[in-house]
Design brief:
By secondary structure, the protein is an alpha+beta fold. The chain contains three helices and seven strands; from the N terminus they run ββββαβββαα. It has a single domain, classed as Nucleoside Triphosphate Pyrophosphohydrolase. Strands 4-1-6-5 form a four-stranded mixed sheet, sandwiched between helices. It starts with 6 loop residues before the first strand and ends with a helix.
Length: 153
């Protein structure tokens, strides 16, 4: 069995004007909403993984559309939810996650491949919706706080 790499990326996709955030519902946990995430493949950089995962999970092609992907230059270690640990090697309980932001000029339709639904919601609604504390933390730190600094909420 090939185990998942406990090094991953998180990409928060949002519409620039309204700051609405794209949230995806997991197929393996219908109560779990999140941003784009994925494990880093061997030989890939976190940046390359972010580009690949956004395309795989949403159909948005960062390179073809010449979109600005921002590396937050921040990574955290978090505890993997117990019901997802079976995907990792025995005794792996934590994952290191690299954070990215993908601002879009306008909301777009999403081509779902790994999720069962999507929705565009306000940053505050996204924070409440996600089960992932680190996903909420990225939104609070980079979207909500930035919006307040720029006169938006």
């Amino acid at each position: 069995m090939a185990y998942k790499n406990p090094n991953s990326i998180l990409v928060v996709i949002y519409e620039q004007q309204t700051k609405q955030i794209l949230m995806l519902r997991r197929k393996d946990d219908p109560d779990f909403w999140q941003s784009v995430t994925g494990s880093i493949d061997i030989g890939e950089t976190p940046y390359q993984t972010a580009i690949r995962e956004v395309k795989e999970e949403t159909g948005i092609d960062i390179l073809a559309e010449n979109l600005p992907l921002f590396d937050c230059q921040e990574q955290i270690e978090f505890e993997i939810f117990p019901h997802f640990r079976y995907k990792y090697a025995p005794n792996v309980t934590h994952c290191t996650e690299h954070w990215f932001l993908l601002p879009l000029r306008e909301k777009s339709a999403v081509c779902l491949t790994e999720h069962s639904a999507y929705q565009w919601v306000s940053p505050k609604a996204a924070v409440k919706l996600t089960k992932s504390p680190n996903n909420a933390q990225v939104i609070e730190k980079y979207i909500i706080v930035e919006g307040k600094q720029n006169g938006r909420t």
